[in-house]
Amino acid sequence: MLRMTLPSEKPMLSAHDGSCRVAIIGGGFAGASLARQLAIGANWDDHQIAVFEPRASLGAGLAYDTADPALRLNVEASRMRAIPGEPDAFARWLETSGANEADPDARVGSGGIYARRSAFARFMAERMQPFIDSGIVRHVRERVERIARSGSRWRVTGSLGTEIVADIVVIATSHPKPKAPGMIALALNGHPRFITDPSRTDALAYIRPGERVFILGAGLTAFDVIASLRSRGHDGAIVAFSRSGLLPQPQVGGTLAPTGNFVVPPATSARNLLRRVRVAIADAKRSGLPWQSVFDALRQQGQTIWQALPRQEQARLLRHLRRRFETHRYRMPPQVADLIRQDIRNGRLMTRAGRICRVERAPHAISIDLIVKPDGVVERQSFEWVVVATGPDHTAAIGSQPYLAELDRQGFVKTDGHGLGIACDRESRAIGIDGHATEGLFIAGPLARGTFGELTGVPEIAVQCEQIARQIIEGVKGRRPMMHHS
After folding, report:
1. What is the pTM of this model?
2. What is the arrangement of strands in the sheet containing 377-383, beginning at the earlier edge strand?
3. Which of 59, 152, 174, 249 is deepest in the core (most CB within 10 A)?
4. What sign for the dihedral angle of Cα 83, 85, 88, 92?
5. Beta strand pairing status for 153-158 and 163-171?
6. Stretch 385-401: mean pLDDT
7. Is the peptide bond before 374 cis (omega within 30 degrees of 0)?
8. Does residue 64 sit in helix, strand or coil?
9. For residue 15, what pLDDT is reported?
10. Which positions ≥6 away from 393 have C-beta within 8 Å?
11. Is residue 344 packed enough to be buried (19+ CB in 10 Å), middle (13-18) or exposed (0-12)?
12. Judging by DSSP bridges, how do beta strands 107-108 and 112-113 pair with one another?
């Protein structure tokens, strides 16, 4: 297996020559967290850490780059452990910055705070700005168009023509966009009332208050769409449709201690893991604890659980238990849970499960025939809008970005065996087509889920980025000085 080596035959070029030690592709939470860990971990020369991110600030990314006040974090603020060594940094910032005072609806129940996503974006931007101001981190406000080998280094080309040659590249981009099911896409592609990316700014702006909306998907993305529409004054009927009919569960109030041990001894099959989870939930109930405390333990132990399972059992877990797990793992913030309950109670929101058998388009209306579970009854309904909220299309992780597709063609990266993202080893190094680690190329954040399992939440990503930063810093120490003086 290849090990990371850095060239020593020529001196490091200065920043104005377009050279750096580390180029990070993506400046969302993963990319910003890694840049910060690198910056504080060693003495760097100016602009030796470059982050390609088209957004105006670092740390927001797709997950938190929103001004929509209806979109909230789905975990309590004290559990957004974004800064290693400072577990309460975000909760403290909410108090000192005035964000809590400006958002009285954030506090629920016994005092838990579910902040707006935009607040977390501001927090991360403030944490990153000193490193940009000092010159350690260079924020390149461009998308990456191409990454190519340049000797033993990498040449990264941005969408506005910036070229940077880097010793190391870290791919820290976000999830791919949702993908509409084939029949819907075939029937509606190009229709002005077919919204394929609800995260796009003002994607929902043209939906009028009384218009009927059909949402493909019934997970957290779908409920984000509903919350956003309602906050804009929409009061029309909404149908949320999925194959399973399983809905995200609500968060529970109060401070919970994770309950259950699923790593000693390690579960060796999906069936054994399911059995142990059921036993743990029953034990928790007898002790007066909610099932959420068991799933919090599953989250904390998730990477160990996943990596202990044989590959075929990982595949079986994904095939049979994934949707059920996700509805309990990715839970609704209380504010959204209350809204959904009220909408279902007053008939403004209907959830349906089954499959779509027919779609007809007209200029101002879309008719959809649904085969509804459990009886197989066919329902025909008409809507003014159709919104795709099926969640990320993980199988398209490489094909969604031209530079990743090119790296794939060159054999430097490949899709992981489960189709969750990009293959890497447990040191986060990209695995090439030959099955070996690609020198100087790392995968950070959710695209590494196939290897690590639980790698979606902020605390888990922060830990992975800390580990990657440590490897990079150890790799460059002793080879060439990180600082030079002219």
Report:
1. 0.92
2. 194-195, 385-388, 213-216, 238-242, 349-362, 365-372, 377-383
3. 59
4. negative
5. antiparallel
6. 89
7. yes
8. helix
9. 39
10. 176, 177, 178, 179, 400
11. middle
12. antiparallel
